[in-house]
């Protein structure tokens, strides 16, 4: 696993600065976030790692958390935007949270029914 992450990060660092990496064990997917807010979800296909999904809304990601069962992602952005999406990339819910403080991280409840944000 460590070699996979290092190979992907080496490839990505040629193009961008990776600031966040999250592994999805149930689905064997890797999410990386760059300094400009780009999110890349990687899968292994025919023995090679390939980008399956790209999401770039142009705002820095403060946290990316997979649900325990791996089916959902909770993404928090530094500008107060929060998004919940499926492992396949479908948006389930999003909201702009107007707060004086930045959201620093998100966490799922043990049953994966709710996500919480920390300021």
Structure report:
With 119 residues, the chain is mainly β. The chain has one domain (2-118): YVTN repeat-like/Quinoprotein amine dehydrogenase (Methylamine Dehydrogenase, Chain H), CATH 2.130.10. It is built from one helix and ten strands. It has one helix at residues 2-13, and strands at 18-24, 29-34, 38-45, 48-56, 61-66, 72-77, 81-86, 91-96, 105-108, 115-118. The chain has a four-stranded antiparallel β-sheet with strand order 1-2-3-4, covered by helices on one side. It has a four-stranded antiparallel β-sheet with strand order 5-6-7-8, with no helix packed on it. It has a two-stranded antiparallel ribbon with strand order 9-10.
Quick overview:
The chain is mostly beta strands and 119 residues long.
Strand content: over 45%
| H and E order | HEEEEEEEEEE
Report how far apart the termini are: 31 Å
**How are the strands ordered across the major sheet?**
1-2-3-4
Architecture per CATH nomenclature, i.e. the level-2 architecture: 7 Propeller
Global morphology: globular
Tell how many strands the DSSP assignment holds: 10
Return the structural class: mainly beta
State the domain count.
1
Keywords summarizing the entry:
119 residues; mainly beta; Methylamine Dehydrogenase, Chain H; four-stranded antiparallel β-sheet; 10 strands
Q: Which helices and strands occur, and which strands form pairs?
A:
Layout: H1 2-13, E1 18-24, E2 29-34, E3 38-45, E4 48-56, E5 61-66, E6 72-77, E7 81-86, E8 91-96, E9 105-108, E10 115-118
